Model the fold of this input.
Amino acid sequence: MNKLNEQLTGIERQLVLQYLIDGNVPVTLTPVSNEKKSETVQPVTSQIFPIALKAENIKVTESGKCYLENPPQSIIGFENKKVKVEFYFNRVGLYFIETIKKENNSLYFELPEQINRIKDEEEQKEYEFSGVIYFEYKNKKDLNLKSIPWNNYDLFTRPAWKSIPLENQQKAKSLLEVFVEQAKEEKNAGNGIQLIPVCNFLTQNENKKMEALQNRVKPVNILYVDHERIVFGFEENVEGFEPGSEFGYKMSFLLKDSPILSRDVFVTLIVNKVYKSNEAADKSCVDCIYTTIQEEDIRYLYEKVTKSHFI
Done:
């Protein structure tokens, strides 16, 4: 495919049609407003989420009609409404907007002449704090995993319970009680303030959007940092981050109003605890403590986080 163009050519469309006819293509449907037919069309309400359809729920004809077979109940209400249809073709994210119609008691949408590539939203932002997990000691393996603040989370303010959405606080409280009991037994959580962002992360129901490129490696989320520990949040299952695993880590601080653009701090980390939730089995929080860190860097982190002088 010519990735310089957002819209597929006629030949590319034919390849996509055959790909859909051959099957094994899950798609995502999202209701959209009727204001305009563009990629920026917004959902009807913020409460409506994309609905994923399995490949076996879709049958595509040579004419381009895509019939929905045994669709979930939530799809029934989409009749005569516009939806944004998204799917991957050879790892490239594609989308189009069409109306769900009905024929012989079967819902369907048609493959239009215009099919677009999902725009690449990966941004090169400058963060006040970011880092790289750059090697793993045990296997002497290079990792180079970039890490950035979770949802541009303000890491240098004290975590507060009110930062957890109200609808998630009951689940977060249940998790917190479990983690606090574990901490009492294991005596490994310090003052425990990092458990608030841990519970926040594990109880967030984040809507995973279709992307320009499937299975792209994403930066690791930084949930908490201070002069003793750093906590990472992983959206998907990862291997190698078990308790006792040790890593090299480079912290980068953006210095504003300074002739020096950034300050890099090199430390080593050991995984102290891995937090999981049964309801979000694919997500995990990895609590790491520093095994080597310079005294001046301890002071710098302490004063940056607490806004008070290190004694």
Observations:
- The two ends are 60 Å apart (CA to CA).
